[in-house]
Amino acid sequence: MDIGIFSINLQNNVVTPLKLINIVKFQCIHCGLCCRLGGPRLTNSDIKMLENVGYDSKLFLDTLEETRKSYKSKKVMKGILKSKLNGECIFLKRTSNSEKYFCSIYEHRPILCRLYPFDWELIKTENEHIIILLKLLSSCLGINAKNGEPVDASFLRKHLADSINKLFRILRT
Question: Taking residues 19-26, what's their average pLDDT?
Answer without folding.
Answer: 94
